[in-house]
Amino acid sequence: MKPAEVRFYFDADILGLGKLISGLRSDCTYPGDPGAVIHKRQRPPCSVTSPGTPDPVWIPQVTAEGLLVITRDAKIQRRVAEVQAVVEHGAGVVALASKDARTLWDQLEVLMAQWRAIDELHGLPGPFIYRASRTVLSKVDLDG
Predict the structure, then answer these.
(1) Sequence-ordered list of residues with C-beta below 8 angstroms from that of 4, at least 6 positions apart, any chain
(2) What is the pLDDT of residues 48-77, one digit of tens each?
(3) Has this prediction a pTM greater than 0.90?
(4) What is d(CA 94, CA 132) in angstroms, rounded to the nearest whole number?
(5) How far apart are CA 93 and CA 70, in angstroms?
């Protein structure tokens, strides 16, 4: 069995979506993920062992692992400490920021509508934050 190349980290804010997608894809993980075999690929347990892990702990951890973060935060650009952590550690983040991303079904719809564009963001040098809605993926200004 081949090891999985994990590329995406689903934040605890969208734990249900993370579990759903990680059950289908070997390249996705979430806090507390025990690991799994998906399509003959062995995904290791997530290094973030608890959904309660504070942002200043998990952001540098998953960034060092080369993971693109997927979260939900309608006002992410106003969260100074979180933006500072993204900038300081060079993280790449996609925030499901649409009012349409309230329920698991809505989050899935936004994610799937933007998946190809999100997939292309993996591996780009950070720091960056993109806001995703059903119709657009737009870059957030980190300078102000």
Answers:
(1) 26, 27, 38, 41, 42, 43, 44
(2) 999 999 988 999 999 999 999 999 976 665
(3) yes
(4) 7
(5) 6
The span from the CA of 141 to the CA of 61, in Å, is 23
Please count the other Cβ atoms lying within 10 Å of the Cβ belonging to residue 132.
24
For residue 95, count CB atoms less than 10 angstroms from its CB and return exposed for 0-12, middle for 13-18, buried for 19 or more.
Answer: buried
Strand partners, 36: 43
Question: What is the edge-to-edge ordering of all strands in the sheet holding 36-38?
Answer: 2-3, 41-43, 36-38
One-character DSSP codes across the chain: -EEP---EEE-GGGHHHHHHHHTT-TTEE-TT---EEETTEEEPPPS---TT--HHHHHHHHHHTTPEEEE--TTGGG-HHHHHHHHHHT-EEEEE-STT-SSHHHHHHHHHHHHHHHHHHTTS-S-EEEEE-SS-EEEPPS--
C-alpha distances in Å from residue 95, one per residue of 31, 38, 142: 17, 25, 13
